[in-house]
Amino acid sequence: MHPLAEKMLRKSALPSIYCPGCGHGTVLNSFLRAVDKLGVYDNLALVGGIGCSGWTPVFIKADTIHALHGRAVAVATGLKLAQPDRKVVVFCGDGDCVAIGGNHFIHAARRNIDLTVVMLNNNIYGMTGGQVAPTTPYQARTQTSPRGNPEQPFDACELARAAGATYIARWTTAQPAQMAKSMREAMEHKGFAFVEVVVQCPTQAGRYMYGTGSAVDLYEMLKTNSVRLSKAGELGAEELAGKIVVGRLLQRDDRPEFTEGVYGLCQAKGV
Amino acid sequence: MALTVEIVQGNEACVKGALAAGCRFFAGYPITPATEIAELMALRLPEHNGAFVQMEDELGSINAVVGAAWGGMKACTATTGPGFSLMQEGIGYAAMTETPCVIIDVQRGGPATGQPTMPSQQDVMQAKYGSHGDYEIIALCPSSVQESFELTVKAFNLAERFRVPVIVLSDEIVGHTREKLRIPAEVEAIPRTPPAAPPDEYKMYRPGPDGLLDGMPSVGQGYNILVESQAHGEDGNRKGNDIATSAKVIEHLCSKITGHAQELTDIVTLECDEAEVLVVAYGSVVRSAKNAVRQARAQGIKAGLVQLRILWPFPDEALVGLASGVRKVLVPEMNVGKISREVQRVLGKYCEVISLPALGGELHTPTKILKQLGS
Ligand SMILES: Cc1ncc(C[n+]2csc(CCOP(=O)(O)OP(=O)(O)O)c2C)c(N)n1
């Protein structure tokens, strides 16, 4: 076992539940590296939702709450208020985060509560077998959009921005080092930090949406479709269609953080 | 601090009880007739270095309570029917993960939006069976402002001891009635205690001989806790596809409550000696029933009252113990007769059990109960 895994993985929870070729392992890997580099391993509190993505923290030997589908951010809100000094990190899928959990997501961003939310976006419902997700592209085929998806997808980063998040980054599994760096920045950032990672899902998205169950093909697709934010500005709408804009999309420090407000405002008033 | 006497609402008494019991976290969403609890928590919690958050909905509220509980705080929420329904998945989560927390349900009439400002006792079964799957909880039923305080304190203490969500089933009458509250100088509050076992020997979900868990570790205490709502083994790892382990978890969740049913019996009796006819009541209805029983005794009718202060687990044995010589039992309640079926189950073979439902938000008048006592 790699020394990082030796130190940080919950061996009793292994082997992982992930399918061969799944991108979630890359995200776990990047996260462990980010934690190690930041030196915050002993100060973590992790929350996962339900779905393949929500399992990520279960494999990590740290304080972990495996919450209900969609409720990870709500659980994390209570946890952060109880333990303001902890690095509270949430792992969730796109369905977990912005479908069933959408309301908690936008309100946590609005409050600017100091959480790091990592959304693993495979554009589909993985765990339940390949149904349409709020991130599934228009007209894409899934198990519940057999004739093509009639819905328009969310851009979760834009949603987070509009709701009031103060740190936003997006990467794919083809940029693991950059992803780890953004996770570090997100954990260091005071306020609601959102890191979206677009991951390959050979078993569900691969089979139903892209017509290939090959992790290598899907990974190549992520790689070739990624466009750095700095480059994206030079491209027109047509050139950007189907592309994944990656990079640090937002960092601002002009909005007060919620936990500090909850405790600080009361003190200021001398209550 | 000496004993203090105040005139307050039942809802306010719940807040005072919660704070006295050590509650330091409240997450809720406003709904009548529970709103005063949230409002007062928002005002008072900061004085105790606690945190109040008005969540975006009731699903968020109960889940934030779960998060705060594992963060080391005693935590609660308050709501009524529609919100209580929305919380059910989270209450089941708390039951499965053995998370201590308190949910105050100030009952109003339903279903759906129902009767926003009218009292009812229609949620008694939802309190017990509201979430999916098999599990047990504890539910307490105050009938007065004083009991709102005392039973809220008790709810927090039971939550800690049994590591279970505890429900305080108040109702609109109790919640909004203003009457005398005597707050004792000292309130017994069971503290949150970390496990006796050190982290390397500790198992998240290993029950002791009494079926209860060894203290409660919080985030940040070095236990690397794994709070898992799938059926799990003692170490917290999922075992949802393992029949024997899953069965064991469910048995444990149920028996840790039912196995302590005697300890969890909380009954107050009035005039039960040599009673021939009994009233079994809980919540607001107790107020009318007391009056009716006193009037009946004055008229020479051998009537008695059994007040259930803990509704779940149901006090089977205690009821049987009180039923000898009793010919008839009346169960007045502000619903279609839900608890009367429980009483029928327990006492049906000893005596006649008569349901006295009151619907639409009406509280039984003493006269209505008295009439039945005499017949
Ligand atoms: C209340 C509720 N509804 C539905 C489910 C079933 N369910 C489990 S995971 C999941 C979707 C998972 O998709 P996503 O969040 O995108 O994560 P992924 O598995 O793709 O990583 C659903 C619908 C559930 N567990 N709870």
Would you write up a description of this structure?
The complex is a heterodimer of chains A (271) and B (375). Chain A has 271 residues and is an alpha/beta fold. Chain A has helices at 3-8, 24-38, 72-82, 94-100, 102-111, 156-163, 176-188, 202-210, 215-225, 229-232, 237-240, 258-268, and strands at 44-48, 63-66, 87-93, 116-121, 167-172, 193-198, 226-228, 244-251. In chain A, 40% of the residues lie in helices and 17% in strands. Chain A has an eight-stranded mixed beta sheet, with helices on both faces. The model of chain A has no long low-confidence stretch (mean pLDDT 96). Chain B is of the alpha/beta class and 375 residues long. Chain B contains twelve helices and 16 strands. Chain B has helices at 10-20, 35-44, 58-70, 81-97, 124-129, 145-162, 172-176, 243-258, 285-298, 316-322, 338-347, 366-374, and strands spanning 4-9, 23-28, 51-54, 74-79, 101-109, 115-119, 138-140, 165-171, 178-183, 226-228, 267-270, 277-281, 303-308, 310-312, 328-333, 352-357. In chain B, the strands form three sheets. In chain B, strands 2, 3, 4, 5, 6, 7, 8 and 14 form an eight-stranded mixed beta sheet that branches. In chain B, strand 7, helix 6 and strand 8 form a beta-alpha-beta unit. In chain B, helix 3 runs parallel beside helix 4 (81-97). The mean pLDDT of chain B is 97. Chains A and B meet through strand 2, helix 3, helix 5 and helix 12 of A and strand 3, helix 3, helix 4 and strand 10 of B. Thiamine diphosphate binds at residues 50-53, 69, 93-96, 120, 122, 125-128, 133 of chain A. Chain B: Residues 17-243 form the Pyruvate flavodoxin/ferredoxin oxidoreductase pyrimidine binding domain. Chain B: InterPro entries: 2-oxoacid_oxidoreductase, PFOR_II, Pyrv_Fd/Flavodoxin_OxRdtase_N, THDP-binding, Transketo_C/PFOR_II. Chain B: It comes from Desulfoferula mesophila.
